Amino acid sequence: MTVVAVVLLAVAGVGGGIAWYLVERGRSRATMRTWLLAAAIPVTLVGAAAVFGLAGDPAGEALLTVARAAAVVAAITGGSLVATALLFVADPNEGVLDDDDTTGDASAHVSDPQTLRGGTSIGALERLGVAITLLAGWPEGVAVVLGIKGIGRYPALRRPVAAERFIIGSLASILWAACVVGVVYTIQP
Length: 189
Hints:
72% of the residues lie in helices and 0% in strands. It is mainly α and 189 residues long.
């Protein structure tokens, strides 16, 4: 059962990356439904990995190392899907752009990636930092990661839509990374 958990975790990482790439390529045509279906892939796989991890025996050191690496990859790749899907859910306009925008932004919608440019890269780094600090047994590191992100984004957070995107994206990223790392803790001795 433990090996199945690790395999599912690895597949969640690879599958999440492939699904994210495919949906991101067609972003202009992707709807909320597309993002939700794509996000369901890693969510389902990580959930199944957790169940198998809880039902299995503790992993040996080699398998645990593989699980840790798979968790980091799954945290990064699956988190992009999960965070973006939640941003679309939070946006009642589903990413429809305003022509009469008076804020100087590319749009005034939470789901538009131009609201906080660079969010995909920053989110991936955030999930990497959260996953590594949790795997290292230093949960306080999550506060450090959030503090650095908040300081870097502070000037842009004065706009309400940017603050909303920041909060939703950050919470989704942190919770996703914590859930994925949680699978590793289900198989630790």
